[in-house]
Amino acid sequence: MRDFRDLQVWQKAHRLTLDVYRVTKDFPSDERFGLIAQLRRSAASVPTNVAEGFGRDGERELALFIAIAAGSASET
Asked: Which of 22, 50, 53, 75 has the fewest CB atoms inside 10 Å of its own CB, making it the most exposed?
């Protein structure tokens, strides 16, 4: 069985998440519960959904989680 961490899409999404956390640490503190939280949540959702979809049974479920990840990437 392959590891989801071998997928380029997961690697790029993980890097995106790390970058979002790095960039948002310099945002104004009054955005901590607004924009910062939303950006971090949506960015972290991308690799999480890729990993979850990869661990599911079947192509249909994988496609569903990839679509959710794409939506989160768009939100970010």
From this structure: 22
Domains of the chain: 4-75 (1.20.1440.60)
| Whole-Å CA distances, 32 to 4, 18, 39, 56 | 31, 17, 10, 34
**Residue 8 carries which side chain, given as an amino acid letter?**
Q
Q: How many CB atoms within 10 Å of residue 61?
A: 14
SS3 52: helix
Render pLDDT for 13-59 as a digit per residue (tens, 0 to 9): 999 999 999 999 999 999 999 999 999 999 999 999 999 999 998 99
Confidence (pTM): 0.91
